[in-house]
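Blinded run. Sample ID left blank on purpose so nobody reads anything into the name before looking at the predicted structure. Input follows.
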Amino acid sequence: MRNVVVVLLVVLPQRLKHVLARRVLGWDLHPTSYIGRSLVRVNKVTMGPGASIGPFNVLRDLEELRMDEGAQIGSRNWIIGVPLESVIYPKNKNRQPSLLMGPYAMITTGHDIDCADRVELEDHAVIAGFRSAILTHSLNFVTDKFVTGPVVLHEYSVLLSGCTMMTSTNIPARSIVSAGSVVTTRLKAEQTMYRGNPAEAVRDLPDNLRFYERVGQQSQLAAEIRRWGGVAE
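Blinded prediction complete.
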C-alpha cells in the first residue's frame, strides 16, 4: 500500500500530495512545503515552512528525511539509503540511514548521496554545483567488512562541483571545499578554503563574505529588490 501511495505522490497535485502523505504515510508536512515530481520512498518525512523538493529526484530506503525551514533539494539528485534491517552492516548498531537538513540548507543538482548512514547539512550548508558524491559506507580491506559513518557539513559550509566526501568526514563551519576535491579525513579548521586530493587547507577565508550573512531565500530576494531601488512586500 505504501509503495502505491509513494508512486501516486509523483503525479498528484500538491494539495492532494499533502493530504495523502499526512493521512496514509504519517508524514509531517508544513502547508507551505513543496514536493515536485520526485520519488520519495522514506519512512519518516518532516518538512518545515518553505522546504522544497524539486523534480526528478529519487530518495529511497531512508529511515528519515528532515528538512527544516527553507531547506531545498533541487533536481536530478540520487539519494539512496540502506534499510536498518539490511544484513550488509550487521555490526553497526548506531547506523542512521537519514538525510537531515537544517534551516536553508541546500542540495542543488545532479548529486549522488549515499545515506547508508547519516548525512547532515547544518544551517545554510550547501552541496553546490553538479555531480558531487557523498559516501557514508566503505570497505575495510583488512577485515573485508563494510563499515559506515556519518558525513556532516557544518553551518555555512559549501561543497563545490565534482567533489567526493568519504565515510566519516566533515566540512567545518564557514568553510569551502574547492571543485574537484576529495575529502578523506575529518577537516578541522573553520572558515578555511580546502582544495586537492586529499583536500587540505590552502588559506583562511575573510570575515566579510556575504554568504555568511544569508538569512534565507526570501530575505535575500527582498534585500536585492531594495538594493536596486524597488519595493519589497
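Unblinding after everyone has recorded impressions. The first helix runs from residue 2 to 11.
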